[in-house]
Amino acid sequence: MISVEQALEKILTYVDILEEEEKPILDCLGQVLAEDIYSSIDVPPLDNAAMDGYAVRSRDTRGASRESPRFLPVIGMVAAGSISERELELGTAIRIMTGAPIPKGTDSVVRFEDTDELLRRGSSISQQLPTEIGILCEAEAGLNIRRAGEDITKGSIVLSKGVVIRPSEVGVLASLGHSKVMVIRRPVMAILATGDELVDINQPLPLGKIYNSNTYSVAALVLRYGGIPRILGIALDSEDSLVAKLRQGLDADMLITTGGVSAGDYDVVKDILAKEGEIAFWTVRMKPEKPLAFGTIRGSSKAGIVRNIPHLGLPGNPVSSMVTFELFVRPAILKMMGKKNLAKPTIDAVLEDSVVNSDGRRILARAVVKEHDGKYFARLTGPQGSGILTSMSLANGLVIIPEDKEEVAAGDVVQVMMLDWSEE
Predict the structure, then answer these.
(1) DSSP of 234-300, one letter per residue?
(2) Do 349 and 421 touch, CB atoms closer than 8 A?
(3) What CATH class does 346-418 carry?
(4) Of 313, 318, 390, 417, which is least surrounded by CB within 10 A?
(5) Of 418, 362, 393, whose CA–CA distance to 2 is shortest?
């Protein structure tokens, strides 16, 4: 039996960063950028108005106040997306909308609220151009003007290779006119449930059978962390059935099975690993759950290249399969996607329950973590049996009880892995 750290280290040595692919920017959320992005333009491309108002020369507003306005004739108007055909002359103003390029000769923009336009027309802004405007404040040079290139300068690196694409990066790419971008592709994870007792969720439930929940919780986790789930269905507890199903997923980036990894007569996954590939390990010092088979199975890529495909045999108990996924499959997915931070965020919290560790394994107990007066408190979700799947739906963290800790009392400070917090 090996430690959690040894198991994870072993798994990560079997997976590598995947190839690059070009994709539309909206399809790249959560993926890692595979190229440096340079700008071929200035953003914004021209000096433009940061507010709706009037383009003026600041010298023409000297001494202006609400008590003593400076009146300027209005010689034109420029809307966003248009360029003024007129140059701003000394002692004049041009009406301008937000985002419109400022007319030549302008050095400041006075917003509508600092003119008498609203006083003249009431509370609404009219599209009719006034003949003159009263300026109610002094304007400094540069007021309400966004300079060309103040966000992005032409020729600069805007996004660096290795950046994780979020909505903000999508917006930056769009602002540069990029509709597609090169990213590290998402891993395809083939998922197979094993067990004569399992029934698909679309079928009637015979007496003595259970619905196949593991496939769907694991597939949801694959999606959550950026992978592409490929559901292979259910294999019976026989070598022929298991091998036939596994062969349907041998062009995936990783095979995930649930069930069939303990010491029972019908637990055949580790036997298949031994025959079809190799076993790296099959027990880990943790609770839930020590049976965890990892190795490789001989398969081929989509290009027909023979290779060894990493295979992780998760426990059949639903809580165990989800917890072991978080600890071992999730980091493998992130590594394959080119991400650097593979660890879930952890915090220190005051435990509100006592936990006994009777057999020297690392316990990961489901808990609800809340903050109060600057401290975190963790309360167990109730019974911790590995078949109580609702304990996972109630939890937002896993309390970590070390192997060498025989008991943790209520009030002790413990480390908690936060399930709902992003690695980023």
Answers:
(1) EE-SSHHHHHHHHGGGTTSSEEEEES--SSSTT--HHHHHHHHEEEEEEEBSEES-SEEEEEEEEEE
(2) no
(3) mainly beta
(4) 390
(5) 362
Q: Write the single-letter amino acid at 174.
A: A
- 48-146 topology per CATH: Molybdopterin biosynthesis moeA protein; domain 3 (2.170.190)
Between CA 35 and CA 176 the distance in angstroms is 15
- What percent of the chain stands above pLDDT 70? 96
Pair of tokens at residue 275? 């025959």
Find all residues with CB under 8 Å of 165, minimum gap 6, and list them: 25, 28, 29, 30, 31, 32, 33, 181, 183
93 in Cβ contact with 73 (< 8 Å): yes
CA angle (247, 250, 256) in 5-degree steps = 95
pLDDT of residue 266: 47
Kindly list the domain boundaries of the chain, sorted by start residue.
4-18+186-336, 26-41+153-184, 48-146, 346-418
Tens digit of pLDDT for each residue in 238-271?
A: 888 888 898 899 899 999 999 876 655 446 777 7
Per-residue pLDDT tens digits for 185-217: 999 999 999 989 999 999 999 999 999 999 999
How is domain 4-18+186-336 classified at the architecture level of CATH? 3-Layer(aba) Sandwich (3.40)
